[in-house]
Write a structure and sequence with these properties.
single chain; alpha/beta; EC 4.2.1.40; 410 residues; TIM Barrel; Enolase-like, domain 1; nine-stranded mixed sheet
């Protein structure tokens, strides 16, 4: 089995409403690049990468000379062909490598007739639990804003009723910390017995991170995620706050993981199959975390069904996955895979049981959302459509005004 072609298609899939975060917003859609790797026996493996648009499509096409004739079973060799650690100083192909690794694992699984999790050691669980990923958001196209504590609690309650979530993650860093603390406490009061986590995407100062962390110590926290920037900032907070700290921003490779092992800054490492360069590096990293008693969770970077499948296969095989995974998935209105969106049951999504990743592209949906991308284009992730001219600093002092209500429909 040898690779003969690589195809990439960028799509824009609508969200219920624009989601606000500490550095900007998702402007009512996720822009993702779908990758198809074809082999000489007629199989097609699927990958996915965030954003990129025409530049990502061109980047994948440019890799065909590297990979034409490559055996998809040779996944370790793929790493050095695409992302040699010294050559990557000049081309930074980690996310491209991840999408191609997804596709190769999909090909191998389809060729052998087994799911990807069987290639990774075999499943330990048949479904992966998820948290309700809660965002402050603008009103749009009939979907209400989420700005006040009451609106946030009502939305969390709707998600809990619909999907069975018992863990709730608040994406913060949008409004002043004291206001978001009020919102977080409202969640705790509304859902006694459920677990909580808060993530301001590293925009708090160390002083604010300490103050917020101390204020939530008595709540049922899973962890406080990236309250401040950097390993040293996290260490400063961890030393004085009695809440586990987690990160997905500053432990995203093995050098950083080694630093965190030698001098702990985060108690929980959120593994992202894109950020780490594929599913297999995440499995390796989880093994290191198991050895040194670090917690692991599965991170979400705004995936559609193809990358979600990689997250599910990863979650299936990790013995030390003691935290619910993150996913933006319930914020999407649709997906590009056959059958539409995968279903939540009791707060979890079943691990696909078909060969490879276990998902296939719905050609009509892909065509529709590729056309939507051509109509709408990309958007600046690190800008906010409701705050023209604003941009975040780290630490940030220019938070949004929680008294301002805005509809950004259209």
């Amino acid at each position: 089995m040898k690779i003969v072609d690589i195809r990439a298609t960028t799509v824009a899939v609508p969200l219920e409403a624009p989601l606000r975060h500490s550095n900007g917003a998702h402007w009512g859609r996720f822009v993702r690049t779908l990758v198809e790797v074809e082999t000489d026996n007629g199989l097609v493996g699927l990958g996915e990468m965030g954003g990129g648009g025409e530049s990502a499509e061109a980047a994948f096409r440019a890799l065909l000379p590297y990979l034409k004739g490559h055996d998809p079973f040779q996944v370790e060799a793929l790493r050095f062909k695409i992302a040699n650690p010294t050559a990557s100083l000049y081309n930074n192909r980690t996310q491209l490598l991840a999408a191609l690794e997804f596709a190769c694992l999909d090909l191998v699984g389809r060729h052998l007739g087994v799911p990807v999790c069987d290639l990774l050691g075999g499943r330990l669980r048949d479904a992966v639990p998820f948290a309700s990923y809660l965002f402050f958001r603008y009103a749009s196209d009939g979907h209400g804003e989420i700005r006040t504590p009451d609106q946030l609690v009502a939305h969390a309650g709707e998600l809990k009723a619909a999907h069975g979530f018992t863990v709730h993650k608040l994406k913060g860093g949008v409004f002043p910390p004291d206001y978001e603390l009020e919102c977080y406490r409202a969640l705790a009061a509304a859902f006694p017995g459920d677990r909580l986590r808060y993530d301001p995407n590293a925009v708090l100062s160390v002083a604010e991170g300490l103050r917020f962390g101390k204020a939530i110590e008595a709540l049922d926290n899973d962890y406080l995620e990236d309250p401040v920037w950097g390993l040293e900032g996290l260490r400063a907070v961890r030393e004085r706050v009695n809440v586990p700290l987690a990160t997905n921003t500053v432990v995203v490779n093995f050098e950083q993981l080694a630093s965190n092992v030698l001098r702990r800054a985060a108690d929980v490492v959120l593994l992202d199959t894109t950020f780490w360069g594929g599913v297999r590096p995440c499995v390796k990293a989880a093994g290191v975390c198991e050895t040194f008693q670090l917690g692991v969770a599965v991170h979400s970077s705004g995936e559609l069904g193809v990358q979600l499948a990689t997250m599910l296969h990863l979650g299936a095989v990790l013995p030390n996955l003691t935290y619910a995974a993150d996913a933006h998935y319930h914020q999407l209105r649709d997906d590009v895979i056959e059958g539409g969106k995968l279903a939540y049951r009791d707060g979890a999504i079943a691990v696909p049981s078909g060969p490879g990743l276990g998902v296939r592209l719905d050609r009509e949906r892909v065509a529709r959302y590729a056309e939507l991308y051509k109509e709408t284009g990309g958007y600046p992730y690190d800008r906010d459509p409701g705050r023209p001219g604003w941009y975040a600093t780290v630490p940030n002092e220019r938070f949004a005004d929680p008294s301002v209500s805005l509809d950004v429909s259209g």
